[in-house]
Amino acid sequence: MEERIQRVKEQLHKASYKLTPQREATVRVLLENESDHLSAEDVYLKVKDKAPEIGLATVYRTLELLAELKVVDKINFGDGVARFDLRKEGAKHFHHHMVCMECGTVDEIEEDLLDDVEKRVEREFNFKILDHRLTFHGICHRCREE
Ligand SMILES: [Zn+2]
Ligand SMILES: [Zn+2]
Ligand SMILES: [Zn+2]
Predict the structure, then answer these.
(1) Annotated binding site, which residues?
(2) Interatomic CA distance for residues 146 and 142, integer angstroms
């Protein structure tokens, strides 16, 4: 946790930003809820517990800044709500998601799995892949076991 905060701090410094207490509180909430996919409002409500003086606008700006610096990714699962998701450290590309159409749970796949597909796209379309978003829609293992 502290090490990751430290690394985020360095990323901010490289881009000439400071890790203010409000920004730090926001990053902590993201780290503590890493497997969730929180909306800006969700993040705000949790940050408020740590830093009651913080405003929604500040949290919004912090999230946008973190997205710009590629600390988090903004993602949308089709419900019109932007969610903020920490990038896995050291990962070249964004991780994949499985969205359950019955219970709404979002699970993550950290392994890229797309090497062959990426090679084909690059070759057949002469397209240099920098990143991707992959969301599977279906029925999760929990719902299938019921
Ligand atoms: Zn995710
Ligand atoms: Zn990939
Ligand atoms: Zn499910």
Answers:
(1) 100, 103, 132, 140, 143
(2) 7
